[in-house]
Design a protein that fits this description.
The structure is a single chain. It contains 13 helices and 14 strands. With 359 residues, it is α/β, with parallel strands linked by helices. Among the domains are: 104-175, no CATH class; 252-357, no CATH class. It has an eight-stranded mixed beta sheet, sandwiched between helices. Helix 4 crosses helix 5. The radius of gyration is 21 Å and the shape is globular. Its main location: membrane. This is Nickel import system ATP-binding protein NikD. It is a peripheral membrane protein.
Length: 359
């Protein structure tokens, strides 16, 4: 088996051409997903997480969406070069998706069993009986009681948590190598959320698959991630192992997100201001209008280059204070929450704890 990452994204740019201008939803994003690991994309709503996930398998509506630059290398093959037909064969087969709203992923006029059978037969030349047996087995594995009987039930006969389990079963129908899970637990209560997260972890070990989990809930990240990619306004602010990012957060935005978690910060933390307009992002670091540590260098040029944190090549940050000649202690000195002054947010808006943690 090769040591190369299963998924390697390099300098990905995805835009939407709108009447208001070009929306730079994903603007130079790079990260890897190794075989068998869980990588979490985290950030506020509007940071570009979902568009990144949908760019991988071209689920975007094109037009107005368009991948303008970059590489998406999956198991040695650049997906940006594939034809639409080849991408359809790959999507749902080796790469599968689970979405936030299971009701939207399931067709209400067909039984859940029929839908899983069709997912199997779409990618494999097997008999309907073989596909049915696999569907029942998958329903049982994801924790649907009396799977044989419930095979013939319709989506409306399942609770929200059970619908999500069915969606996961459908995604696993072809034993994918990579599962992209976009906010799969946000619409569920805490008890069901924990069950779904435990289920994903168990199935990952059983099927030896990689997971790219898209979430704004840092509590979820702490539970399941091997590595974390922190996104803001279409850019990657920081990426590294989950322990390093949580214990040694380097970017002011990462620190601000973590200070919104219960038990960290002063308990009332929020991030002042709002995301910049995607059609007119600021020069320099995208986060500088909301950052208490911003200096002139933060407001000029392009987003700062990725710099290793304390010499660790696996933990990098995009911040001028970590560049040669910079002083990281400016950011890391006392661990206080980052909060922008009112002048940074003329509309008075803030990102609340609920937006950041989902709780």
């Amino acid at each position: 088996m090769t040591d190369d990452p299963l998924l390697s994204i390099r300098d990905l740019h995805t835009v939407f051409n709108t009447d208001e201008g070009v929306v730079r939803a994903v603007d130079g994003v790079s990260f890897d997903v190794d075989r068998g690991e869980t990588v979490c994309l985290v950030g506020e709503s509007g940071s570009g997480k979902t568009v990144t996930g949908e760019s991988i398998t071209r689920l975007l509506r094109m037009p107005p969406g368009e991948i303008t630059d970059g590489e998406i290398v999956f198991d040695g093959q650049d997906l940006t070069t594939l034809s639409d037909e080849a991408m359809r064969d790959l999507r749902g087969d080796r790469i599968a998706h689970v979405f936030q709203n299971p009701q939207g992923a399931l067709n209400p006029v067909y039984t859940v069993g029929w839908q899983i059978v069709e997912a199997v037969k779409l990618h494999e030349d097997v008999s309907r009986k073989t596909a049915r047996d696999r569907a029942v087995d998958l329903l049982d594995r994801v924790g649907i009681p009396e799977a044989t009987r419930r095979f013939d039930d319709y989506p409306h006969e399942f609770s929200g948590g059970m619908k999500q389990r069915v969606s996961i079963a459908m995604a696993l129908a072809t034993n994918p190598d990579l599962l992209i899970a976009d906010e799969p637990t946000t619409a569920l209560d805490v008890t069901i959320q924990n069950q779904i997260l435990g289920l994903l972890s168990d199935l990952q070990a059983e099927f030896d698959m990689s997971i790219l989990l898209i979430t704004h809930d840092l509590g979820v990240v702490a539970e399941v991630a091997d590595r974390v990619v922190v996104m803001y306004a279409g850019k990657v602010m920081e990426r590294g192992g989950v322990f390093d990012v949580f214990e040694r957060p380097a970017h002011p935005y990462t620190r601000a997100l973590l200070d919104c978690l219960p038990g960290r910060g002063d308990g009332t933390s929020s991030i002042g201001g709002r995301l910049p307009p995607p059609t007119d992002p600021p020069d320099g670091c995208r986060f500088h209008p909301r950052c208490a540590h911003a200096v002139d260098a933060c407001r000029q040029g392009d987003q700062p280059a990725d710099t290793p944190v304390d010499g660790d090549e696996d933990h990098v940050v995009s911040c001028v204070h970590y560049e040669p000649g910079g002083d990281p202690s400016v950011v890391r000195g006392d661990g206080d929450a980052v909060a922008a002054e009112d002048t940074h947010a003329p509309d008075g808006g803030t990102s609340t704890d609920e937006e950041v943690t989902g709780r």
